[in-house]
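Sequence in, structure out. First:
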Amino acid sequence: MTDTKKPKLGRSWQAEEVTIEEIRALTEGFADAAPLFEDDMVDGAVYDIVVVDGDLHVDGDLDTFKHGLMGLVVRGSLRVEGLYEDTDDPACGVFVLGDMTARRVITTGTLGVAGSLTATEALVGFYNDYGATIGKDVVTPLFHPENHHFDIRGSLEAKAVVGHGAEYRVPAALKARVQALVPKKLREVLVDEVLRGEEDDEIELDDTKLRQRVAKGLPVLR
């Protein structure tokens, strides 16, 4: 399933350039990694697991599905100049041992970052089967966790947090911070294209439309 038109990212498990034992050892610091790399998950798997020995800089988008990945381990830091997106089907885990920076982040699968995560335009979660673990700080203008849990061990720096129940998608220590960043009037913060309703007291966020605009790189914040 690997797209041969995509540049090689690192050492391939399918090509026997890295063993599953090494992958497990590299990701043992992430509690959510172990279930993804159990024997029953990897035996006969169609998708690949890749290990990058050092930093990874992607000049464009990084879509784990298009790269045919069920796992990506970056032993250094990860920088994506465009959209970073992972998947829950197929189940995918991306683990960064350093810091991660991307213009836009949409995470549906498992994302683990030992350092800080910076999304310069938006950080969006989707679906609740998996979650994200960030060892240090999260920095982004717009944080939309939806129903995806973010275990943020450091601080959260954002201009706005949107989405119903967002304060329950982060650790208890960050609940007050999230509540303080939830805008009282969505129309003052977000573009009309991601909202539904006419009157101010009826305005609601359309999660799907917000996610679609983030994926396309279209403005979401006013």
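Second:
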Amino acid sequence: MHRIIAGIPTLKHHCDTLARDPERYRPTQCPHCGLGHPWAHGHYTRKADRTTSGQENPVPIPRFFCPGCGHTCSRLPSCIAPRRWYGWALQQTVLLLLWIGLSLYAVSGLPTLFDTLPPCRSTCRRWGQWLQERAADFGFHLRSAFPDWGRVLGWPDFWVAALRQQSLSAIMAWLDHHAVSVP
């Protein structure tokens, strides 16, 4: 099952899409047992916007129930990163700053750059390690689909080139749609 719904770049767009076309979020089958068409099962709320002006908070995340196995699942818009406090856009900015040579201390100390409290050094380090650990797997799938990206050697240079073409949220939604686990 695809956990990330592509093409929803902002929380406002997510709320509008959920009100206008809630069926877009419904999975075609249960991710646990494969039975088709889970039922809508309400929603849970999530504080997805960590900005200081966070006016869309909290946002509803739709849930679905499988009558066959009794499991529930949910689907996230591409603007919300799974299991993270910060969105993909902020993570992309932090990673690019690290790859151009700024230190963890410098990146976490740039409050004027972010509309939110900047992530701490350990969070920035964890994001870099997370992507580096998955660089071979993600890179293989992305280079297969986007051959021009394969001309760059080394994982940080590959990601800088890839992020020039697409946003991190679009890349992660593409990977999720092609059955690559994006934890």
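Remark: Helices lie at 11-20, 88-99, 104-108, 121-133, 135-145, 155-165, 168-177.
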